[in-house]
Amino acid sequence: MNAVTLNDTEAIAIGAGILGTGGGGSTYLNRLRLDNELRHSGRPLPIMRADDVPDDALVCAVGGMGAPTVSNEKLQEGREIMRAVRALEAHLRQPMHAIIIGEIGGGNALGPLVVALQLGLPAVDGDGMGRAFPELQMDTFMIDGIAPSPFALADTHGNIAIFPRIGSAKQAEEFARSLTIEMGGSAALVMPVMSGAALKRAIIRDTLSLAKRIGDHVLDCRARSIEPARTIAKLCKGRILFIGKITDVERRTVQGFARGRLKIAPFHSAAPPTLPMAEPRDVLQIDFQNEYLIARLGDEVLCAVPDLITIVSLDDGEAIGTESLRYGLRVAALGMPAPKELKTPEALAVLGPRAFGYDADFCPLPGDLL
C-alpha cells in the first residue's frame, strides 16, 4: 500500500478485526473516525514502507490502552493520541517523522491512521505484534530492547502524563495500566519512541497491507454469497479449528483487562432432545485476556498464543471481539500461524502460553503469517 483512501477503510477494518484475535478495540467506531478524518482532510493518507524511513528520523507507535468492554461504552473525545504525541514532541524538542501502528489488531489498527491524518504525517506499513496482545511488553519493539520511555498517556479530559524514564517494559505496563484505570479504564498511549534504524530492526512489515488483503477477500466472499471462514483460513495459512454455536460466555473486567472464557458447541447439541447432546470433549473452550489465548478440545490444545485464534461469524466473516461475545452466535474459530518474529525463544519467553500461566508448551501451527 502507498495510501489509504475512503475506498480502503472497510476492508482494512474487516482485516484488522480478524488479526485482532478478539482484542484491539472496536473497528466500527475507529472506522467511523477514520472516514470522518479522510473526508475532512480531503486527501488520502500516505503510507510508507518501513525501509523508507530515514535511520535518524524519530517515529512513535500509538494506540489505545484498556479493556475493549470499556472502550466500547466510554467513547473517545477524538484527539487524545494527537495531544499525547504533541506533548512528547515538546518534551523531546524534536518532531515525529511518521506514525507507527502499535498493534494491527482491531480498532488499534485504525486509530493510528486517524492520528496520522490529524498530525499531517505518514503512517508506516507494519506494527509490533502482527496481531493484538494485552500487555505493553508483548511486542517486537520491547523484545528487541528498544527503550520503553519516554512514553505518554492521555485521557478524554485533556490530562496528559509523560514518563521520562522507566526501568523496564514490564514496569511500563504496570504503571500505565494503573493510570489507565484511574483515567476511566481506557486511555491513549504513545509508546515507544524510536529511531528509524531501530524501527527497521524490530517492526513486523506489511501488516496493514495484509489487513486490507484479508478484508478484500471477505468482501468478495460476501458479494458472491460464500461463507468466508475457509477463505480467511487459507489466505492466512491457517485452518478452521471448530464450527458451531456459542453456548456459554464468562467475562469480567479485572485490573483493566477483559478476562474470561467461552464455549462453542457443535450444532447438533442445540437440536431437539432426541439427538445426543455434545460431550465435554466435543465442546471447544477458548480462554481470553482481551485477546483469545488458548483453544482446547477436551484436554487437547488445538492452538495457543502467539499463534492467532480468531472467531468470525459464519454468515459474513466479521470478527467477533471478546466484548461482543454472546450466546447463540453461529461462528467459526480459526487458528492462524504467528509471524516468525513472534516465535523466537526471546519472544516466546514473553508471549508464549507459559507467559500467561498455562502449563503448556508452544506447538506452532505450520508456516508463518507473513
Please give the largest β-sheet.
9 strands, mixed
- Termini separation comes to 15 Å
Q: Note the total helix count.
A: 11
Shape: globular
Beta-strand residue percentage: 25-35%
Helix content: 25-40%
Q: Give helix and strand order, one letter per element, not per position.
A: EHHEEHHEHEHEEHEHEHHEEEEEEEH
- Derived structural class: alpha+beta
Low-confidence stretches: 270-279
Cα radius of gyration in angstroms:
20 Å
Total number of β-strand segments?
16
Protein architecture, described:
Mean pLDDT is 93; it is low at 270-279. Helices cover 30% and strands 27% of the residues. The protein is an alpha+beta fold. β4 (98-101), α5 (111-119) and β5 (123-127) form a beta-alpha-beta unit.
List the helices and strands and how they pair.
Blueprint: E1 3-4, H1 9-19, H2 27-41, E2 45-48, E3 58-66, H3 68-73, H4 80-92, E4 98-101, H5 111-119, E5 123-127, H6 140-143, E6 151-154, E7 160-163, H7 169-182, E8 186-195, H8 196-202, E9 204-205, H9 207-223, H10 229-235, E10 239-254, E11 257-265, E12 284-289, E13 291-297, E14 300-304, E15 308-313, E16 330-336, H11 345-351
Helix pairs in contact: 1-2, 1-9, 2-5
Please give a quick description of this structure.
The protein has 370 residues and is α+β, with helices and mostly antiparallel strands. 30% of the residues lie in helices and 27% in strands. The chain has helices spanning 9-19, 27-41, 68-73, 80-92, 111-119, 140-143, 169-182, 196-202, 207-223, 229-235, 345-351; strands spanning 3-4, 45-48, 58-66, 98-101, 123-127, 151-154, 160-163, 186-195, 204-205, 239-254, 257-265, 284-289, 291-297, 300-304, 308-313, 330-336.
